[in-house]
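Table 4 source record.
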Amino acid sequence: MDLDVFVTAHRAEWDRLDHLLHRGRRLTGAEADELVALYQRTATHLSLIQSSAPDPMLTGRLTQLVARARATVTGTRRATWRDAVRFLTAGFPAAVYRSRRWWIPTAVLSTVLAAIIGWWIGTHPEVQATIAAPDELRQLTRPGGEYETYYSSHPAASFAAQVWTNNAQAAAMCLTLGAFLCIPVIWILFVNVLNLGVGIGLMSSAGRLDTFLGLVLPHGLLELTAVFVAAGTGLRLGWTVIDPGPNSRRTALAQQGRAAIGMAIGLALVLFVSGVIEGFVTPSGLPTWARIAIGIAAELAFLAYVYILGGRAARTGDTGDVEEADRSAELPAAA
């Protein structure tokens, strides 16, 4: 493409579009139709220039012009309570449901790995000796030891807030760092699995695995599910970098990235519930069976929410992405 010839041929159209945009709402019906046509034409021009003869100054000008035109053509919309309700009843559960082929295998493999690590540590005293000194291990695992007092070491409200913040940060990191070819997600997931496996191994070696599970399961079922969903979604985002499918890599990443950001908000709410359970139920004086029953009920409620509401929304075409009117304009592909 001869850029100078191209600019000369279309400069008048761009200037006319700029003039119409400056007039704002004082357009006649014919001028409004002209603005739409010029917007579509200029978007195509921008795509051709970016793919054939990129020029930073010209690209910058046309990008700004196309963005202004799109805002004028589509208008602006403020978020409402209806958007929040739609997100909670359709967008978020649909995104979790659609990513189930990633987070369910992640959950299964992670659980199996945690069990293997726990068995290895629990049956090999020499491995336990590399973790801590015998006196320190006894301090961790004895009745009233650190594993038990951890959940009541701070006031319930502040402990729940701290747990929620830490878990939400871990989930957000899994969701956002997945684009780096999955590697950070795998590391974050492994650290969580390793910590769980160490606890299982040490408490089982002390003959107190039932106590450990009674402390972990009430909040851990929902908490770990949220982490697995975040990790699975992050892995899916990373795989999109490798294999974007039929869309361009940029378009595929944008779609998956927007859905991941929405999932970060939704999972923060899920982790808030697990944090409340961990702060108020886990260290409570309720019988072990009652605390575990609360954890199972919370987990089943979340799974029903995903498979009933999310499955229904996914079957109607909801992907968890933002509304089409709120997305950035996708430029036409150059021929």
